[in-house]
Amino acid sequence: MTRPVYRFAPSPNGHLHLGHALSALMNFDAARASGGRFLLRIEDIDTTRCTPELEEAIHEDLAWLGLSWETPVRRQSAHFADYRAALETLEKQGLVYPGYLTRREIRDAVVVAEARDGRPWPRDPDGGPLYPGDAAVLSAGEISARKAVAAPHALRLDMKTAIARLAAPLTWQELDHPEASSKAGTIRADPAHWGDVVLARKDTPTSYHLSVVVDDAVQGVSHVVRGRDLYQATAVHRLLQMLLGLPEPRYHHHRLIEDGEGRKLSKSQDDTALSALREEGASPRDIRRRVGLAD
Fold first, then answer.
1. Rg of the chain (C-alpha set)
2. Strands of the sheet with 185-188, listed across from one edge
3. Maximum Cα interatomic distance, the chain, rounded to a whole number of Å
4. Do 29 and 145 lie in a common domain?
5. Rounded to an integer, what distance in angstroms lies between the CA atom of residue 152 and that of residue 23?
6. Containing H/E element for 126?
7. Which of 80-89, 172-181, 185-194 has the lowest mean pLDDT?
8. What total of structural domains would you count in the chain?
9. Domain enclosing residue 172, as ranges
10. Are 64 and 14 within one domain?
11. DSSP-derived 3-state class of residue 186
12. pLDDT tens digits, residue range 134-164?
């Protein structure tokens, strides 16, 4: 039998905190218990915010927790060609189009539409407004002008057309787990809730959605264990896997570590950073207890 493959994939744009520790430990423990493999992946497509110093800090924090991983470590910034190839596959299927609206123009269009129609603009599961389409805001002449000068734009997935290409209902397998925070079994995926998601931008050759499915396929990841904040995004990932002919991992979305007000921890909260806790005298065993894992 093929050994299970688990991965932990942080972005080096801040210090790891307790929420990262929970996810890393769960993946490492599951790999060890199943005789599987544990991979570390550095998701550094944001080359302006991600730094070598923060990447080194990730290695230090994880080693201090007692984790070990296979080398070499895959760094996304070294594999933009892989994402470009996947994007070209989708382009050849007629599923990608350039969207020229700026974030400000999208916000303004939503305000106008809500005032006109008297009802909220549809939003994705993360709360962002669905893309209205260039023609809803810009004239045909303005769209042509922006294309002519290669104005900044996002490459978006034509969600309606993509879903129409599916031969069967889209699902994913959610695994049961002692740390379960979502229902196990076959989950119906509905990527339409996300609208025309961004796959790449003029200045960034990939997006999280595109790079994560490509990386998981390239690395042979069989089990994706991650926070429940990414539960709904799995619908987009399954759609891209089907369109690109990529294998389907099994998923488990675990509980989140929250602050005193019930909000997900962020990298800006230094009081939960692993490096800060270590300096205060915390031990790896203390971290396990704080995130609710048995020794």
1. 20
2. 74-75, 37-42, 5-8, 223-227, 250-254, 171-174, 185-188
3. 64
4. no
5. 36
6. none
7. 172-181
8. 3
9. 79-96+153-256
10. yes
11. strand
12. 999 999 999 999 999 999 999 999 999 999 9
